[in-house]
Design brief:
The protein is an all-alpha fold. It has one domain. About 80% of the residues lie in helices and about 5% in strands. The protein has ten helices and two strands; from the N terminus they run ααββαααααααα. A two-stranded antiparallel ribbon has the order 1-2. Helix 2 runs antiparallel to helix 10 and helix 4 runs antiparallel to helix 8. The longest helix has about 35 residues. The N terminus is likely disordered.
């Protein structure tokens, strides 16, 4: 009977690496899940459990917005892009449409005057309209840029969007992007746990010798 118990204990001891590998894998899996869960804080045996991202969503939103504004979407660069837009092709096309499709039909339908509206006159009118619009475009773009600078705040917009972002959707996106990395973390937990178990088993056998 004693021999059977010793054999059983020995076999259980040999399972130590498997057990520690399972614990390592499970620990890392739970740690990953706790990035997103629980969504709302719960109390278990005096401990408050709350997923890292749900708990710090507001703080993360502010920090992410500041980082994006500082490193990626700087407002003065957006203003430079607005001021640097070349409107000439759009203004030429608008002048052409305005004169030939909007004004010309009306002028030619007018009694007496319509007979004198030639293509040459309309071409001159088109050029005149384009020149005038281009002359006004510069000050208009500057006013738009100043209004943009006054009303458009990159950080506030990004912060609001992240704060209101649906956590289920965020989790799905993150898990989809980092699926391979999350699996690697889980496997590394199992590997390290297994190695710890092997060390424990080796030490035990060494001490019994």
């Amino acid at each position: 009977m004693m021999t059977n118990m010793v054999d059983l204990s020995f076999y259980l001891l040999l399972c130590t690496p498997l057990l520690t590998a399972l614990i390592g894998w499970l620990t890392n899996k739970v740690a990953i899940d706790m990035l997103f869960h629980p969504r709302k804080p719960i109390r278990i045996m005096g401990f408050h459990l709350h997923g890292l991202i749900p708990k710090r969503q507001m703080e993360l939103a502010a920090e992410a917005a500041e980082l994006i504004e500082r490193e990626l979407v700087q407002q003065h660069l957006l203003l430079q892009q607005i001021r640097g837009i070349d409107l000439d092709p759009y203004l030429n096309a608008t002048a052409k449409t305005l004169v030939w499709e909007r004004i010309a039909p009306r002028l030619r339908d007018m009694p007496l005057i319509g007979n004198f509206v030639s293509d040459k006159i309309l071409t001159s009118l088109e050029q005149l309209a384009a020149d005038e619009m281009k002359r006004e475009a510069g000050p208009l773009m500057e006013r738009i840029a100043l209004q943009f600078e006054s009303d458009f705040h990159v950080r506030d917009i990004i912060t609001r969007n992240i704060e209101s972002f649906d956590l289920d959707r965020l989790e799905a996106v993150v898990r989809s992007i980092a699926k391979r990395e999350f699996k690697t973390i889980e496997y590394m937990g199992a590997l390290l746990g297994g190695l710890v178990g092997c060390v424990q088993l080796g030490l035990f056998l060494l001490l019994r010798m």
